[in-house]
Amino acid sequence: PNTTRCAVPDKRYQKLCDIWNPPSQYPAHLHLVDIAGLIKGASEGAGLGNAFLSHIQAVDGLFHLVRAFDSKEVTHVDDSIDPVRDLETITSELCKKDL
User: Which of 51, 60, 66, 72 could make a disulfide contact with 86, Cβ separation 3.0–4.6 Å?
Assistant: First the structure.
């Protein structure tokens, strides 16, 4: 999976540090993991199946990003663009694995 880390700025942070004077300062960061490729049947091991599902078990939260654009340069596993179907597939596969 691809990962990145981004700062979560908070105007209150420095003020709190000034008030409490902690021995160290660690501002908040969000660690994002891009886990691609959940397909129908993943809960039974299809596609990246078990690898995908094991990666998401290690995260603290999920957000779905589904494709809603058509491009000849970017293929889709189902050969058609249908974000509602894709979201239903993701939800169904996660439920089948009880995540």
Answer: 66
Nearest to 40 by CA among 31, 49, 30, 50: 49
- What secondary structure does DSSP assign to 57-99, as a single string? HT-S-----------TTS--TTSS--HHHHHHHHHHHHHHTT-
Helix, strand, coil % over all residues of the chain, rounded to 5? 35, 10, 50
Is pTM beyond 0.85? Reply is no
- Token pair listed for 27: 């501002």
Distance CA 61, CA 94 (A): 13
Closest CA to 35 of 60, 59, 56: 56
Residue 24 belongs to what H/E stretch? none
